[in-house]
Task: structure prediction
Amino acid sequence: MTAIELDGITKQYGSLRAVDTLDLQINEGEVFGFLGPNGAGKSTTINIILDFVKPTAGQARVFGMDCQEEGQRLRQRIGVLPEGYDVYDRLTGRQHLEFAIESKEANDDPQELLERVGVAHAADRKASGYSKGMAQRLILAMALVGDPDLLILDEPTTGLDPNGAREIRQIIREENERGTTVFFSSHILGQVEAVCDRVGILREGRLVADDSIENLRSNM
Ligand code: ADP
Ligand code: ADP
Result:
């Protein structure tokens, strides 16, 4: 089954075409790297998939459902790590998850999620004392609430040191092994190549490549 299907998606802001007749298919179980420089249209595309932005033209479907018609229902099945999201300094790791669980009306066990991202040892510490990598793993745990079938991660490793980025990729791999489809957006090839089955390269709203890492490398 297809996890994400974009059919001629266009988003126009005044005279700027942020996304330009984009066609894209992501299969269930894939880890897809969505690569492109800043301003290429990655966030706009993600926001269209999540039905936060209405496309000027085209159709987006997730698990066969129209994003514009079933946005709210679809968001229940999608875990999102937004770009540049920050933790709340005054809340503990556990409180972050309790908040996320309540917001999504899910019934996950906070401790189990904290274990999955390797911050269970700091569950009752305030996030102000977390390293950057721990904070990002906590945010990733929040995205895992509700056992999503699709994870959309917008620049999840940006700003982390190599070790911190590696830990995030390891968690992505483990979640993928549980059957979760992953959409990994980044402006750095090196961040996605170790974990993605396939990479699409977006430039000025257009897909200029869509292939496996091996094939992309041999064509460079
Ligand atoms: P990114 O790092 O993805 O490029 P941006 O800084 O472009 O993020 O965008 C951050 C937010 O601001 C997004 O929600 C985007 O839709 C919005 N945004 C970006 N550019 C503009 C703009 N020129 N006018 C209004 N909103 C914008
Ligand atoms: P990326 O995520 O790849 O950095 P974005 O999708 O954030 O790219 O932005 C693509 C282009 O659309 C940029 O030129 C950005 O400034 C513009 N843009 C994004 N959101 C808005 C908005 N709400 N209003 C006007 N322009 C926007």
In short: The chain has a mean pLDDT of 95. Strands lie at 2-13, 16-27, 31-35, 57-62, 65-66, 78-81, 150-154, 181-186, 198-203, 206-211. Helices lie at 42-49, 71-75, 93-103, 110-116, 132-143, 162-177, 189-192, 213-218. The two ends are 31 Å apart (CA to CA).
